[in-house]
Amino acid sequence: MDHLRKLRSDLEAWFSGLAPRERTLVSAAAAAIVMFILFIGFVKVQRGIASREANVDRKTQVLAQVGRLAQGYRQTQAEWTQVEAKLKGPPLQLMSFVSQAGQRLGIEVTDLRPGTPGTGSATDKVVEDTVEVNLARLDLQKLAELLQALEGGPGVVKIRRLAVRTRNDDPMAVDATILIATYQLKG
Length: 187
Description:
single chain; alpha+beta; Alpha-Beta Plaits; 2 domains; 5-stranded antiparallel beta sheet; 5 strands
């Protein structure tokens, strides 16, 4: 503490020994140095604030993304639960279901060939049953309605393959071959 008092008294003695013009110049230089130090401090504080605001914005974006992902996860879980409930439901007699759907829409469904039941892999718990259907002289609107009726029915029914051929005798009609699959949980 004595060292600081001695330093202060030496500076006061030095400053009082200066001419009035020199005192003005030293005071102006000291004021400029103080202003420069304050300016640098202000800039550092501003940069710190901007950095923290940027961090807050990034974290807000991450939280919003987490919210969107959580919503997507909940939606996927709900869809999965619905599909699982359909898979656990009573087995669907695919051939009669396809015939009845065709009859409701006024489509003659006579050429049905059952496929061999199988599974996707050895570890799958899902059994697949398929039916191949050949339809002749069908307009595209009726075909679209049939496909929607099949996939919108009970159980899990999917169109695995669809082959559409145009007809030479009627440009508005098509022939279609459809491979329809239904899925059921084993056991």
